[in-house]
Amino acid sequence: MAAIAQAAGARRERRALRMRPGSWLVWALVVFFLVNVLGVIGSVVLDSVGKTWFSGWTPTGYTTSNYSQAWDEFDLGQVMTVTFQITLLVVGLSLLIGVPASYALARRDFPGKRAVMLLFVLPILVPPIAYGIPLATMLYKVHLAGSFTGVVAANLVPSVPFVVYTMTPFIEQIDPRLEQAARMCGAPTRSVLGRIIAPLLLPGMLAAGILVLVRTFGMFELTFLTAGPTSQTLVVSLFSAATSAGIRTAQNIDAMAVIYTGSMLVLLVIALRFVNPTQLVARSRD
Amino acid sequence: MTDTAQTPAKTLDAQRFNELRLQGISRAYGAHTALHPLDLTVRGGEFIALLGPSGCGKTTALNSIAGLLPLTAGSIELDGRRIDTLPPEKRGFGMVFQNYALFPHLSVRRNIAFGLRMRKVSKAETERRVSAVLDLVRLNEHAHKLPGQLSGGQQQRVAIARAIVLEPPLVLMDEPLSNLDAALRLDMRAEIRRIHQEFGLTTLYVTHDQEEALSLADRLVVLNAGRVAQVGTPSELYESPRSAYVAAFMGYRNILSLRAESVDAGAATVVGDGVKFAGTVSAAVTAGASVQVAVRPEDLKIAAGEADAAFEAVAEVVEYHGREFQVDALTRAGSRVHLRTPERVAPGDRLSLTVDPRRALVFAAENAEAGGAAEDPGEAG
Amino acid sequence: MSAATVTVADAPKAALRHRLAERGVDRTLLLLLPGVIAMAALFCYPFIYGLGLSFQPAKGGVFGAYSAFFGDSFSEGTIWTTLGLAIPASLINVGLSVPISYRMRGDFRGKRLLLTLLVVPITLGTVLTAEGILEYFGPVGWFNLTLQKLGLVGAGHPITLVNDYWGVLFSLIISGFPFAFLLTHSYLSGIHPALEKAAATLGAGWWQRFRFVTFPLLLPGLLTTFCLTFVLAFSVFPSAIMVGDPDGRTHVISIEAYEQALQNFNYPQGCADAMIMTAAMLLVIGLVMGVRRFFYTGSTGGKG
């Protein structure tokens, strides 16, 4: 027995040795990347609680006054309210529009389906800046520029296709025979949708909704192009504060950035309870 | 090449070896032991089937031999040379995967040539050997297709061709027929048998289908929950299984839990609720102990008169099978027995049944597991 | 006689409905309507409107805005500036993703945690990343301090990484690499593990397994990943302003378009720039997708 155990030990050792150089390099790269990301976030967080930090490894002293200053100076209460109103409205509307569309796309094969698919894939592919500028121009012409409605409408453009593409695999995996069975049991369309499809789709809708929430909360370009002073979201006012030079201290801006990061991380933690990390960037299955 | 059975005209020759010795190989996942120490010696040219229900450790054993899974303990020796320390690509075994694992981006020809290419075999030699194997599996006209364009049976043959073109000393097959429909499975079984014979391959074949195993293998290894239940030739296992578990796998569909009344030199009288008959003892059974008695459906006969009846049962379900009837009947104790009879039986008929004592195998009672496993082969087959 | 008339009158109507249903057209398609209308109104219409507007500049005739863009070396140069950022960034992101996700294709403890950590920079968004880069990679930031500590640069002579090309490139890598990694990782896990095992039993070592089996199957996915990372990098905007040199080395095309439309209020010019941007991007994607057609793009599930 001892000999066998020894042999097994020797084998493990050899295996470990063989894997070493490649693995080390890969892990070193990952660690290097993560250390830098940590540094990027850490600098902001540390600066937001610092008094002054012109040089050296750490600020000269610590304070929480940056937060209260930032909160007052940038009117963050109002900004946060607007942000959540916009985000939730976009989530609700895009689910309302996107889920039925994804159902039809998953279940039916019809002439022109490819064109409809293309219509839903283009807003994801074309960069927001490229269609945001014409969109902003058009909103300006119809007097919606800078309005709450305009921002919500603009954010629907990437969100609806995103819901469609997140939901389609969820719907495809529901056996169509379930619906046929329900119909054979005498259920009308409304009951089929309400009692069979909707409950089965709930996890998918939850996932899609949360993903849209995270994306809209962080969506900069579209909101930036279409928002006015009263319809700015947190990320846009953060950008404006950071780029309008001079007047504010860097610490206040960083405090605001930390508030943004904090809200984002809370959303992220919630999101990751329901979805796979990969889903945040793309469909889980292609 | 110590081969004498093959004709000299053969273009392909498996590299022969004398024996592959598995010594106490085992595999554990944390606290769960998937494969208990397995000892087995495979002789060159043998066809060995590893048989057992799903989750019994047979695929684990196969992957360990292939080198795809590290061993927890034990060693593998090929003609005295230790090979378990080699990675899979250095062992030189061929393997046919359950879902075939054909490279979807390579044509049939390039799939088959893959292993030769890895070994840097010359172009001309590769060409010759691939063509020979394509002939062998009769896929010549499909050589340029992608695997996705082939039917299941054709993909199966590509997988076999890819494994044997390297002339490996040992071919491992992991339930290669389980993805095919029933008719195709019979054809492919014959095909595998033919290739094995023509080619003189040593084959280790994993399956859960006892019919497949019995018809293909020279020797069978029956596994139960990671342990070897019995090793033997098909006829040994078929005629004298060593336990109720193996018996259940070998087509003894009736496993009755009874009590041994008397035991006398290989013969026993077993009794139960309204049951009494004589059987053959194949392992140590003491008088008075609980036993399991295994009887094949075709060995349960309808008695001429009530006097020599072993027990009575009421026919419940009768299926017409052409030359005979398949009857499910309930004994008085409520256990269900299966029998085959040429006599016309109607549901509800009271049947007096007898058993030839030589055909009723008496085993010491096992744990409950065997009873559950008894249902498996019937479903799988 | 009357029965026959009824059949004749009814037949065409019923048949049409069934004929349509046969082709998949029935009332279920009404569910598409809100989505299609929303996309048409909010995406197609503005786009076409912008395209139309770009042909109606204040001066210079129909193609005035376009000739103004290509006539001015500063604005024309934005295309090359943008490509000069987007192509290296996408190549680096995809190039790093391949070995890393290949190493991590199996299951190991803490994998989900690692994936989560990698997701963080994506969700933080470009604005926050830019803010952090300004401080971290700045002349007195931790990065330069570390380099000085290690003696790689002299004290008092920090290397310039922000307000320059490099800062923007870093921000594209920080937000783009996790994206590329997660995509590559999901493509890689779509390749059935039995294929590599099969290659191993056929005598292929790890490099050969990667070179002849995994990589060819991964390549179409890599090209798609490249396209998506490229789209992200090509439309770089906030970080080019915040950590870059928006009037010089990182004056990318999105800044040019934004300034024309919403700072100079020259809408036709801004729309023309946006159209040029879209066209340039579609050109690159079209090229890559054209290359992708030459490779096997079918199922990688192992069954062929």
TrEMBL record, chain A:
Give TM segment ranges.
Answer: 24-46, 82-106, 118-140, 152-171, 192-214, 257-275
Subcellular compartments: Cell inner membrane; Cell membrane
Q: Which UniProt keywords apply?
A: Cell inner membrane, Cell membrane, Membrane, Transmembrane, Transmembrane helix, Transport
Stated membrane topology is:
Multi-pass membrane protein
Family annotation (InterPro entries):
MetI-like, MetI-like_sf
Q: Does the keyword Transport apply?
A: yes
> Which example biological process does GO assign this protein?
transmembrane transport
> Does the record's keyword annotation contain Zinc-finger?
no
Q: Which SUPFAM superfamilies match?
A: MetI-like
Q: Where is the ABC transmembrane type-1 domain?
A: 80-271
Principal place where this protein is found? membrane
GO annotation, cellular component aspect: plasma membrane
Q: Which family does it belong to?
A: Belongs to the binding-protein-dependent transport system permease family.
Q: Indicate what this protein is called per its UniProt record.
A: ABC transporter permease subunit
From TrEMBL, chain B:
Concerning PROSITE patterns, the annotation shows: ABC_TRANSPORTER_1, ABC_TRANSPORTER_2
Gene Ontology MF term list: ABC-type transporter activity; ATP binding; ATP hydrolysis activity
- SUPFAM superfamilies this protein is in? MOP-like (SSF50331), P-loop containing nucleoside triphosphate hydrolases (SSF52540)
| Keyword Transmembrane recorded | no
Q: Does the keyword section mention Repressor?
A: no
- Keywords on this record? ATP-binding, Nucleotide-binding, Transport
Do you know which Gene3D superfamilies this protein is assigned to?
Answer: 2.40.50.100, Nucleic acid-binding proteins (2.40.50.140), P-loop containing nucleotide triphosphate hydrolases (3.40.50.300)
Q: What is this protein called?
A: ABC transporter ATP-binding protein
PANTHER family in the cross-refs: SPERMIDINE/PUTRESCINE IMPORT ATP-BINDING PROTEIN POTA, SPERMIDINE_PUTRESCINE IMPORT ATP-BINDING PROTEIN POTA
Spell out the InterPro entries in the cross-references. AAA+_ATPase (IPR003593), ABC_SmlMolc_Importer (IPR050093), ABC_transporter-like_ATP-bd (IPR003439), ABC_transporter-like_CS (IPR017871), Mo/tungstate-bd_C_term_dom (IPR008995), NA-bd_OB-fold (IPR012340), P-loop_NTPase (IPR027417), Transp-assoc_OB_typ2 (IPR013611)
| Residues of the ABC transporter domain | 20-250
Species assigned in the record: Actinospica acidithermotolerans
Any one annotated GO CC term? ATP-binding cassette (ABC) transporter complex
UniProtKB/TrEMBL annotation, chain C:
Does the record bear Transmembrane helix in its keywords? Answer: yes
Q: Name one GO cellular component term.
A: plasma membrane
Gene Ontology biological process terms from the UniProt entry: transmembrane transport
RNA-binding as a keyword of this entry, yes or no, is: no
- SUPFAM superfamilies reported for this sequence: MetI-like
- Cellular localisation: Cell membrane
Bilayer topology term: Multi-pass membrane protein
Q: Where is the ABC transmembrane type-1 domain?
A: 79-293
Pfam families (alphabetical): BPD_transp_1
InterPro entries linked to this entry:
MetI-like, MetI-like_sf
Q: Any transmembrane segments, and where?
A: 29-48, 79-102, 114-134, 165-188, 217-237, 274-295
Q: Which UniProt keywords apply?
A: Cell membrane, Membrane, Transmembrane, Transmembrane helix, Transport
So what family is this one in?
Belongs to the binding-protein-dependent transport system permease family. CysTW subfamily.
PANTHER family per record: INNER MEMBRANE ABC TRANSPORTER PERMEASE PROTEIN YDCU-RELATED, INNER MEMBRANE ABC TRANSPORTER PERMEASE PROTEIN YDCU-RELATED-RELATED
The identity of this protein, by name, is: ABC transporter permease subunit
